[in-house]
Amino acid sequence: MKIALFGGSFDPPHNGHEAIIKEALNTLDIDKLIIMPTFVSPFKDKTSADEKQRFSWVQKLWGNLEKVEISSYEIEQKRPVPSIESVEYLNQIYKPEKFYLLIGADHLSSLHLWHHFEKLASLVEFVIAKRDDIEIPKQFKDLNTKVKISSSFIRSNLNTNEVCEKIKEEVKKYYLQKN
Fold first, then answer.
1. For the chain, which residues score pLDDT lower than 70?
2. Per-residue pLDDT at 79
3. Whose CA is closest to 166, among 46, 12, 21, 36?
4. HEC letters along 72-117
């Protein structure tokens, strides 16, 4: 079995996430794409939307896609979960012959700082989603997504033009109530 893991806060999910998922499904030779929302990113103190809301949005958007599984593993831990833990958890379940870990190019500069990076790198092949004209080193497989949006921009500007159509009004209403 060949799997790919795409984790993130999805606070909120947006068209950039959608582009990554579609490109991964169309270009990677995988049997399953696991989308795993975080409880809280190990690199952040908090999220704007609570974990149940973010999981619900992800489930609505991508839960019915063929080859896609939405995992609540990190949310169930009720704490920040380093990627290595999620990878080891999925390795126990699926015992994949190939394991891709999808990340945005904005994480490249800090990738070496990730918890147990060397071990993580021995277990997965990183697949980098192009973002913000960041140069992707040749040793990485990349996804031709050219994302130029971030969840933080959407939250701060309530710009829902970049939010997936299916949840656009729900997202706008949620963040307006929160602010």
1. 159-160
2. 96
3. 12
4. CHHHHCCCCCCHHHHHHHHHHHHCCCEEEEEEEHHHHHHHHHCCCH
